[in-house]
């Protein structure tokens, strides 16, 4: 049975499931390849609103949506049932009844997941029927399979912005953080993605950041998780740390040295988070104290992907503006020459960031 993706996962231009969703300045999301073709054709209006765009429009990666699409596809299609799906209320009752067996609860979660994949109207009906409370109890289960299925269903219910604030109001963050701290590897990855989804709504970023252990649990997952868990934890931190107060919290939880080591191993998302943390004084101070900080960022400039290079340039710009010592070290490591070479890069953001860093390096050097 093929996975039925929500319409929100489809590019408004190609009508295909997005593989690299990016946000245009109009606020609408498109698949990068589709909107790039639109721009390359000379268009300078949003395909949806028809409002004018800048001469060089920015394409901001929609990490939250990308993770949601990826995790939605990872949930295996449910087994076919010989009988029709039961009514949501009956399924919810099975989840909450003390007499229900583990097998019946797993089956109910599977059927509710099938329902939640259909459209936003059904997801709204499920939340209005009291599904969230029942599912959150399953998220708190000691059984890893039940917990994982419950998190997958909760992630589906969070697809709609109207549900995101409601989920937080019903206590979702506490259950999610508990899964982050003590769940199986799959549960921890799903819990991190769940925080990314909730953080799409601005008010939730502050709520998540202020919740005890939320950011600390993500930092722990960065430190001891495997590939997928690290990536989802970094994605969640990126989403949460777009709220300025959370940057200081992440630094206090020890994120900087862990991100530095992960960035050195080649995870671009870690460099992106460092770019955000470098915007706060505490983050810059911690990076300055980290032995080898500049060398790691220079390695990303030399060997990283376009995204890694873009954010390494941003991070170095913030650090060099803050510290003449880092500026001097960057020059000794050949950053100025690297930046000069990047002025001809095909990526407009890389060219712009390289030009900005050149100005910073020359300005600080002339003040010595």
From TrEMBL:
Q: What is the lineage of its organism?
A: Eukaryota, Viridiplantae, Streptophyta, Embryophyta, Tracheophyta
- U-box domain boundaries: 4-79
Q: What's the protein here called?
A: RING-type E3 ubiquitin transferase
Q: Which residues belong to the signal peptide in this entry? A: none
What EC number(s) has UniProt assigned to this enzyme?
2.3.2.27
Question: What biological-process terms (Gene Ontology) are attached?
Answer: protein ubiquitination
UniProt entry tagged with the keyword Ligase = no
Q: Which InterPro entries match?
A: ARM-like, ARM-type_fold, ARM_PUB, Armadillo, RING-Ubox_PUB, Ubox_domain, Znf_RING/FYVE/PHD
């Amino acid at each position: 049975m093929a996975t039925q993706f929500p319409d929100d996962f489809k590019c408004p231009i190609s009508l295909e499931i997005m593989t690299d969703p990016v946000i245009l300045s109009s606020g609408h999301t498109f698949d990068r390849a589709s909107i790039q073709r639109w721009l390359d054709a000379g268009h300078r209006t949003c395909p949806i609103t028809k409002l004018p765009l800048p001469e060089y429009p920015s394409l901001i990666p929609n990490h939250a949506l990308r993770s949601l699409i990826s995790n939605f596809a990872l949930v295996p299609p449910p087994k076919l049932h010989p009988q029709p799906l039961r009514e949501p209320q009956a399924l919810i009752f099975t989840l909450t009844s003390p007499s229900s067996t583990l097998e019946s609860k797993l089956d109910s979660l599977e059927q509710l997941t099938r329902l939640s994949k259909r459209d936003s109207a059904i997801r709204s009906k499920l939340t209005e029927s009291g599904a969230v409370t029942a599912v959150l109890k399953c998220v708190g289960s000691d059984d890893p399979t039940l917990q994982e299925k419950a998190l997958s269903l909760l992630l589906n219910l969070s697809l709609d912005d109207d549900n995101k604030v409601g989920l937080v109001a019903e206590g979702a963050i506490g259950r999610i953080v508990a899964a982050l701290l003590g769940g199986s590897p799959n549960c921890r990855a799903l819990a991190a993605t769940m925080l990314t989804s909730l953080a799409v709504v601005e008010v939730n970023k502050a709520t998540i950041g202020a919740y005890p252990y939320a950011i600390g649990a993500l930092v722990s997952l960065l430190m001891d998780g495997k590939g997928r868990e690290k990536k989802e934890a970094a994605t969640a931190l990126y989403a949460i740390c777009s709220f300025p107060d959370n940057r200081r919290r992440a630094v206090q939880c020890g994120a900087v040295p862990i991100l530095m080591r992960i960035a050195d191993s080649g995870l671009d998302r870690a460099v992106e988070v460092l770019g955000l943390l470098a915007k706060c004084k505490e983050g810059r101070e911690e990076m300055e104290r980290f032995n080898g900080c500049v060398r790691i960022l220079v390695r990303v400039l030399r060997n990283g992907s376009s995204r890694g290079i873009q954010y390494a340039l941003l991070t170095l710009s913030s650090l060099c503006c803050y510290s003449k010592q880092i500026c001097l070290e960057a020059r000794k490591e050949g950053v100025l020459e690297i930046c000069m070479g990047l002025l001809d890069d095909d990526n407009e953001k890389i060219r712009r960031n390289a030009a900005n860093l050149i100005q910073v390096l020359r300005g600080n050097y002339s003040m010595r």
